[in-house]
Structures are given as C-alpha cells and as structure tokens.
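Chapter summary example.
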Amino acid sequence: MEDREKWLIYTYWGSYLKEDYLSISLDVVEILMKHWGIARRLNGWNFDLDNEGIRDIDSIDKVKEEVLNDRDHYELYDVTFFNPSITEEIYVNRLNVNKTMLRVEEYDELKYFQTDDPALNEQRTQALLEVFTDVASLPAIEELWMGDEWNAFMGKPAYLYRPKPLYDRVYDTLYTLKTKNEVEKLVQQFERYVPSELVMDFLNQRLGAEAVREMGNGKIRVLFYNRELTRLKADPKKVLSELKNHVDNYCRQKGVTLYPL
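The structure predicted for these 261 residues follows.
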C-alpha cells in the first residue's frame, strides 16, 4: 500500500517570501539538522538526471555547497531525516522545498502522536513544537503551520485573517505565486488598521491564555491542540472564521474594508 503523507510543518511561502527561497530553505535544513541529526539523503528533482541522491551528510556546509553550486538541479529538492524522538523504529520525516511551498512530511498516519500513553504523546508533541518554533522564528518566514489540520500556527497575526477567495488561490499551487501582491497588500492593510491586541484578546478568550503567546518580531504562536498534537481543543477553521468576522466587524466600525482590496 502506498504511503499517505501527513504534513508536520508547512508554509505556502510563494505567496509572501521576499528573500531567495533556496537560501532560506537551507536555514531550515540547518535547524532540522540541529534537532534531528544527519541528513540521511539529499535529493534534487531535476527529472532528466539520475536521482540516487547524496546520503548521510553530517555538515550543513556540505548541504549548502551542494545546493547552491547546482541551483538548477535543486530547484526542487528534499532532505530525508530519521526523527530521533522516536526510538522504537525508524521514523522518516522529509523536508520538501520548492518555490511555492516548504513542508515537512511523515508517512505513518501520525501514529507516534496517538499512542496509548498520553504522556508520551505530549512529549513527542512538545519536541515537534520546538522544531516548529525554531523554523517559524526565521525572520523570512512570515507564517508557518504545524499539522495539516492547522494544529498550530506561528507568524504575523495578519496571516490568521484568511479571506476564502484569496486563500483558495494561495493553496492552489498553480496560483500561489500569482497571489503574492494581493497577500502583501492585505498584510499591510491588516497591520495598518487592526491592533494585534484585538487578535490576541479574541484568541485568548476562544482558546485560553495558555494557547497564545507573543514570540517577538511581531509574531504570535497559537496552539489549537490540547497537549497532544491530534487532540484539537477547537476546530481551527471555525475559530479563524470567527476571528475574520470579529476583525471585519471592528473594521466596519472604523469605516475600513480589508478585503476585497
């Protein structure tokens, strides 16, 4: 049976990234190597070349040299890790990089976060949260999600305001890059008119103060789960829909319309 991947960490950075995506991706690789150890395999995805990849790289400098010296071959690439937080068997986590998005996948249906031991699930969730937080702390990354059910978010509050017509296109990789100007303008409008306290207060009331933290550099971290990754305390999409309505009502009272732009 074919593996069905789950996304542990992801961002559609093609909709906002201002810096060179390959350079930023290598900063992410460095963080993952800090947490997870050697890169078990580096694969470039230039499909007209033999793609055996390079195995067991123990230095971020070697990864950077390989990728930056052959940018065409590594226009799309992935890096495979064995996550050391799982000791009973090999747990593959794979970073995928391209212009449109960055994501870390796993292929075990999140079973290691859903054991019969809640304390173990919490420990593994916390270990993933530390990785996620380090990646999201990179200045170039303006929004990052943990879990493909939107289990956690870290980034600028403006990225929690998600008009469906715009984000339907952001999440369609055929259109992601074409949304960049719109996303940038929306973020600017949001930051101009909406105080971050409005977002923080709403999320504190909806999720509890322990779920929301200011992280510096204008970013916040929001946990939609209750201790364990797969135990959501609220439906994130419903919460963000309510947040959008709350922000729209606030802006309406100020005579402002955030979207359509």
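To summarize the output: Residues 118-136 form the longest helix (19 residues).
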